Fold these 2 entries.
Entry 1:
Amino acid sequence: MISKEQAIAIARQEIVDEVTLLDENEPVTITEEDGRYVVTFVRHNPPGTRAADYDARLTIDANTGEVLQFLVAS
């Protein structure tokens, strides 16, 4: 099983050249559910803004480190 830190590293590697983070210092959150990590690169929008609350969200298999899903906000 990979660690949460390894899952974040995998996610960071996957988004290179795919996602431009609005702020490199935005927080990264990670949750574990059903043998998967969900790594979210959080975006803080101004109040009243209708937009995704993340720049990218990746689901990673906690056992293999395989990226199962890669969502990018527009």
Entry 2:
Amino acid sequence: MSVPGITRRHMGALGLAAGVFTTGSARADTFPSKPIHLIVPFTPGGTTDVLAREIAQKLQVALGQTVIVENRPGAGGSVGCEMVARSEPDGCTLLMGHIGTLAVNPSVYPHLGYDPVKGWSSIAWTANVPNVLAVHSSVPATSVKELVALAKSKPGALAYGTGGNGTASHIATAYFAMVTGIDILHVPYKGTAPFVVDLVAGLLQIGFSGTPSIMPHVKTGQLRALGVSSAQRSTAYPELPTIAESGYPGFEADQWYGITGPAGIDPAVVARLNAEINKAMNSKDLRARLAQEGGEPILLPPQALTEQISTEIDRWRPVLKAANVKLE
């Protein structure tokens, strides 16, 4: 399966990354000399948190040093981002970021305490995971077309939950509403897990989030999945149509994940972290875990994440402006 955004330029950069690692400095030879803190800028339980903990376990073994996952939620992930961006650039404080924190926040938070592109040392673009559009089992819609018709018949009556204003689930659903021309009520939560709890309880009607958060409840019959956000059908859930083939060509709103650190980390340290994280993502068990969720590991050098962040900021800015998503 092809991975959106990966180009020959990305692949060519693999040689550069390998060269930096091979000629590493003394700092890289002794790295890490203290525990690594991997910051998740959301509450526990969401896809970002789950992926961070999987990577941390493998990184701890590979580096022979403690890797601590810390949840620092707030302001759509901006609190955790700013903490990492302002930390010492020694490679021991890292961010488990994703499309929302790295590509959306720069457009919706006008007063970020860091440069959204130059403020990072990109470490590794780790994975792509499709979003799933789901409804509570009580909602009388079994397809995207039926949901759109229902929403248009009751403007503002259907509520959708998200992990917070400006988060990945928010922009995906706002994008869906904009493309389909429906009026649905946004209910922001402080994290993915809380909104999924209320969706399962029937307090919300619609949810649009990563497969790890949604599909377990689809399997129990509490939720009904209507479609996936990826350009192609999910290998894990091939029975689900894409939003694009459900009548909205070109629709694509996957979640992607990447690890960054503050600007200025020694390139050799970056290269070592990139190599070890890529090994973790390429491990048999982590690949299998991602495959169960319809996700793909991304095994590219740090420069690929830098390009992805810049490209996605430009891509989502007009969508966010059209949806009037603006936060302070």
